[in-house]
UniProtKB/TrEMBL annotation:
<dbReference type="GO" id="GO:0016731">
    <property type="term" value="F:oxidoreductase activity, acting on iron-sulfur proteins as donors, NAD or NADP as acceptor"/>
</dbReference>
<keyword id="KW-0560">Oxidoreductase</keyword>
<feature type="domain" description="Nitrogenase/oxidoreductase component 1">
    <location>
        <begin position="67"/>
        <end position="455"/>
    </location>
</feature>
<keyword id="KW-0149">Chlorophyll biosynthesis</keyword>
<dbReference type="InterPro" id="IPR010245">
    <property type="entry name" value="BchY"/>
</dbReference>
<dbReference type="InterPro" id="IPR016209">
    <property type="entry name" value="Protochlorophyllide_Rdtase"/>
</dbReference>
<keyword id="KW-0077">Bacteriochlorophyll biosynthesis</keyword>
<keyword id="KW-0602">Photosynthesis</keyword>
<dbReference type="InterPro" id="IPR000510">
    <property type="entry name" value="Nase/OxRdtase_comp1"/>
</dbReference>
<comment type="pathway">
    <text>Porphyrin-containing compound metabolism; bacteriochlorophyll biosynthesis.</text>
</comment>
<dbReference type="GO" id="GO:0015979">
    <property type="term" value="P:photosynthesis"/>
</dbReference>
<protein>
    <submittedName>
        <fullName>Chlorophyllide a reductase subunit Y</fullName>
        <ecNumber>1.3.7.15</ecNumber>
    </submittedName>
</protein>
<dbReference type="GO" id="GO:0016020">
    <property type="term" value="C:membrane"/>
</dbReference>
<dbReference type="Pfam" id="PF00148">
    <property type="entry name" value="Oxidored_nitro"/>
</dbReference>
<dbReference type="InterPro" id="IPR050293">
    <property type="entry name" value="LIPOR_BchN/ChlN"/>
</dbReference>
<dbReference type="GO" id="GO:0030494">
    <property type="term" value="P:bacteriochlorophyll biosynthetic process"/>
</dbReference>
Length: 491
């Protein structure tokens, strides 16, 4: 059966479906305000207003790293039985497919190409519609995700007019423009939130598919945010003495896990920037707690919060703490981090990683995150500031480099340009995304997991100084291909 019902049509949709407004010349170079204005005029105003509320901007409101749409693309590509299609300029799609395969995507990225004519006549929308119909084979997929990049969003390509469902396959159309979603971390939430909203409506209408593995007998805690696979296991061990179990991690790896995620006792916003997902959980009546069980203080506070929202008795809470905290303390003491550090990143897990570093003994001076301050990051911010750490939300690359110059750390952990800047100053640098956020952080496994890497990097400073001396002047100024004056003509 084909349910050819549009997602959420509005009175103004028909003309736009027939012919998107002619803004095909727009791209990154057009500037944020021009793109925003075009998108508002072509019908994306409501979506952009919601993004502005969910992902508040300022002082840093533009991505300074990868295209934000990568976050949504990654979430789609990591889900079983899900087809993901991009609608955008070929250069954007090239970059996004490149980075998704660099990060190990194991399936194809769909692409519906366009040119000026198909964009302005509305043919692009018809092409997307056709591709969605072609992909919606219930034998192969549970869902088809279509992601509008900058130009189709600004041009008003109305994905909300796509069928909501084709032959039982869910169709999810989302706008993820760089001028409306500040970071790729927040773009993960755009898709996760859209899927949760869809799944919640399904669950409200009747029975839904059971999870692949048997459900836990105990009430569960859903975890919000991508994390190292060992972390949910660690958290499960902490919850057991409380009479609770760990639930699915959102973004999920399969559609049916969304129902299990919604059917929980509480939600742990391990990554605090999942505003749209949190809204869906709150609409489903689920309490949400912030922070994460990192280090001794973090784990004790987090267990207190879980016990409070789940009405767990003081006896059980004491038993859980007695089972976990001494082991975490021993692991932290056994792997101290020695040195002054600045830390920054754009994953949304910077504050909890920072807590772990402080509890490991590091002299941490600064934490910058490209994500926004939210109610769910408040406890981590307060704790870090109470330890004398400067915390900056929506930090720019310039903020991160300025902090490095101010605090003169033994190690700068950050994004690629920050690490580059550190190395050019003979300061050892480590990339946050690959070397810190892709490690266990929770419980006893997290305590000590990063110490060896960080201490080894700190110990490398002499090599950096030696290299800087050796390469001094190479690639700088005129030797970097930049000539301050025009060469004199010879002849
Ligand atoms: S889709 Fe991404 S790469 Fe393309 S213009 Fe927008 S922000 Fe830039």
């Amino acid at each position: 059966m084909t349910l050819d019902t549009p997602n959420t049509p509005t009175a103004n949709d028909a003309p736009r479906a027939a012919g998107a407004v002619g803004v095909d010349g727009l791209g990154c170079h057009a500037g944020r305000e021009v793109m925003l204005e075009a998108a508002r005029k072509t019908g994306a105003g409501e979506t952009l207003a919601r993004y502005a509320k969910d992902y508040p901007a300022g002082p840093h409101d533009q991505p300074q790293s990868m295209c934000p749409a990568f976050g949504s693309l990654r979430v789609g590509l990591r889900m079983r039985r899900t087809a993901t299609v991009l609608s955008g300029s070929a250069c954007c799609v090239y970059g996004l497919t490149f980075i998704s395969h660099f990060y190990g995507a194991r399936r194809s990225v769909g692409y519906v190409p366009f040119d000026s004519e198909t964009l302005v006549t509305g043919k692009l929308f018809e092409d997307i519609r056709e591709s969605v119909h072609n992909l919606a084979d219930p034998e192969k997929v549970d869902a088809v995700v279509v992601i509008n990049l900058c130009v189709p969003t600004a041009s008003g390509v109305p994905l909300r007019l796509l069928p909501r469902e084709i032959n039982g396959v869910r169709i999810i159309g989302i706008d993820v423009p760089g001028f409306g979603v500040p970071t790729h971390a927040e773009a993960k939430d755009v898709l996760a939130g859209a899927m949760l909203a869809y799944a919640r409506q399904e669950a409200e209408q009747g029975p839904v598919q059971a999870p692949r593995s048997p459900r836990a007998q105990e009430p569960t805690i859903t975890l919000l945010g991508e994390m190292f696979p060992v972390d949910p296991i660690q958290i499960g061990g902490m919850l057991k003495p409380l009479g609770l179990a760990v639930g699915p991690v959102v973004p999920t790896r399969e559609w049916r896990e969304l129902y299990g995620a919604l059917d929980c006792a509480a939600v742990a916003a391990i990554h605090p920037h999942y505003a749209a997902s949190i809204r869906e959980f709150q609409n489903a009546g689920r309490p949400v707690i912030g922070s994460a069980p990192v280090g001794v203080d973090g784990t004790a506070d987090w267990l207190d919060e879980v016990a409070k929202v789940c009405n767990v008795s003081a006896d059980k809470l004491d038993a859980a703490k007695a089972a976990m905290l001494p082991a975490i303390r021993a692991a932290l003491d056994g792997a101290p981090i020695k040195g002054r550090i600045t830390l920054s990143g754009y994953e949304g897990s910077e504050l909890i990683a920072a807590r772990l570093l402080v509890e490991s003994g590091a002299d941490l001076r600064y934490v910058g995150t490209a994500t926004a301050r939210t109610p769910w990051s408040e406890r981590d911010r307060e704790w870090l500031e109470s330890k004398g750490v400067e915390v900056r939300f929506r930090a720019t690359m310039e903020d991160d480099i300025a902090a490095m110059d101010e605090y003169q750390p033994d190690l700068a952990i950050g994004t690629t340009p920050v690490v580059q800047a550190a190395k050019s100053r003979s300061i050892p640098g480590l990339y946050f995304t690959n070397l810190i956020s892709a490690r266990p952080l929770m419980g006893a496994a997290g305590a000590g997991s990063v110490a060896a890497t960080l201490n080894a990097a700190i110990g490398n400073r002499a090599r950096f100084t030696e290299m800087k001396d050796f390469f001094s002047g190479v690639g700088e100024g005129a030797t970097g291909g930049i000539w301050p004056t025009t060469k004199r003509e010879v002849g």
